[in-house]
Specification:
Number of strands: 5
Distance between the termini: 111 Å
Largest sheet: 5 strands, antiparallel
Structural class: alpha+beta
Shape: elongated
Helix content: 55-70%
Strand content: 15-25%
Length: 174
């Protein structure tokens, strides 16, 4: 008797709390599903970030290889190559350019202004004028001066380059 009464009481109590238990169970299941969703999303984000980083790293390595290849080509050319800005500041020079103008380092050479190399400034003004209208100058003979003051006759080919970056125009003298 006593046992049946107790079981009956527990069954009634469980049945009365059925909707509450169902609600709590729904909350637990819902929370678990939300947790699983969040973990899945975070996992997908992490995987995509890793793929993106790997892709960026591969692109950077390819860019560095290309840059190294062109830097080697630039440095090993037998022709002098000088890069400057439209405002007459030197940006770069290869070793043949250093030899031609009598400088020992790029830094020393680049501390000068383009105009410092010209004996006749009007020749440089003519070059800039042709660059402005045609974008390049071919086979222009000019007398320039070396670091030690000696003159040297050179035949220039000058190209104006534009990049996608505003204000990143350069003149390349060969």
């Amino acid at each position: 008797g006593d046992r049946n009464t107790r079981e009956c009481f527990l069954r009634k109590r469980i049945l009365m709390q059925g909707p509450q238990i169902d609600f709590l169970w729904a909350v637990v299941v819902g929370t678990s599903a939300f947790f699983i969703l969040v973990v899945t999303l975070i996992t997908v984000i992490i995987i995509n970030q890793r793929k993106f980083i790997s892709s960026q790293k591969a692109q950077m390595e390819a860019l560095q290889k290309r840059e190294e290849k062109y830097r080697t080509l630039f440095e090993e050319l037998n022709d002098a190559v000088v890069v400057s800005t439209p405002s007459d500041q030197f940006l770069d020079v290869n070793s043949a350019g250093l030899d031609l103008f009598g400088y020992s380092t790029k830094e020393e050479f680049c501390n000068n202004n383009v105009l410092d190399l010209y004996i006749n400034i009007d020749q440089y003004k003519e070059i800039k004028n042709v660059l402005k209208h045609k974008g390049e100058v071919k086979d222009f003979e000019v007398t320039m001066k070396r670091k030690d003051g000696q003159t040297v006759c050179v035949q220039l080919r000058v190209t104006s380059t534009d990049s996608s970056i505003p204000g990143d125009k350069k003149f390349i003298f060969v």
